[in-house]
Specification:
With 230 residues, this protein is of the alpha/beta class. Helices cover 38% and strands 16% of the residues. Strands 3-2-1-4-6-5-7 form a seven-stranded mixed sheet, sandwiched between helices. It comes from Algoriphagus aquatilis.
Length: 230
């Protein structure tokens, strides 16, 4: 790994014009590229992200995983590849300044992937709905008993060694992205750990937990993914 290591950040974003500048502003200065995947937003997400200093790629097909894959493709095309990639949501629910704690186990040579666990950190009241809390518990419990994977959360705030991420051959294009990464990392023998992260109410309405359709769709896809890789 390079010293200092090259760290890039990927932020999938759909209609996050009010929150994305705050997220970008609080990302630590040790990051090289902040890559915002504009997932066919109908607001000024692209403009405000670029103004804030991010590299913006456009992905017209809706889907969290699809946006992440498009951002990864952009990074692959850079002459110098990163050592570590951090995934972060664009709704300001995560605390970007905690990124230094997230990447530390990788820098210490103790992990290939680090999940920011909201279950281990402090959650602002109302930041996660009951379906979200239950869904995380159910998914991590199923992963433990079906695959032996030990996680407490499917949190989107995570860091992984770039080469290891490419090895996982990620394919999910929507709600199954986070759990696919965790299951594949476990099955591939990657060293993984969790660090506590704090969580607050997002700016705007959640595309997943904010609608009944979103909750049902995400829950179905997560459970489907667990059985798919069993």
């Amino acid at each position: 790994m390079n010293y200092p290591p090259i760290i890039d950040v990927i932020i999938p974003a759909y209609n996050e014009e009010k929150s994305i500048p705050k997220v970008i502003a609080e990302i630590p200065k040790f990051v090289r590229y902040i890559v915002v995947a504009n997932n066919n937003s109908t607001d000024q997400t692209q403009l405000v992200a670029e103004t804030a200093g991010a590299k913006v790629v456009f992905e017209p097909q809706k889907g969290y995983g699809k946006a992440c894959l498009t951002a990864m493709d952009w990074i692959k095309n850079q002459e110098i590849q990163p050592d570590i990639v951090v995934f972060l949501d664009g709704d300001y629910s995560d605390y970007p300044e905690e990124m230094k704690d997230l990447v530390q186990p990788i820098l210490d040579g103790k992990a290939d992937m680090v999940i920011g666990s909201r279950a281990l950190g402090q959650r602002e009241s109302g930041s996660m709905t009951l379906p979200q809390v239950f869904g995380n518990w159910l998914a991590t419990t199923m992963m433990k008993y079906m695959q032996g994977a030990k996680f407490s959360d499917l949190g989107p705030f995570r860091a992984i060694v770039w080469k290891k991420l490419l090895y996982l051959n990620m394919i999910d294009q929507n709600f199954g992205w986070t759990i696919e990464m965790q299951i594949k990392a476990h099955k591939a023998g990657l060293r993984y750990t969790e660090v506590p992260v704090n969580y607050r109410k997002r700016i705007g309405v959640s595309k997943v937990s904010g609608t009944v359709k979103g909750v049902i769709g995400a829950g179905y896809k997560i459970i489907f993914t667990i059985f798919k890789y069993w």
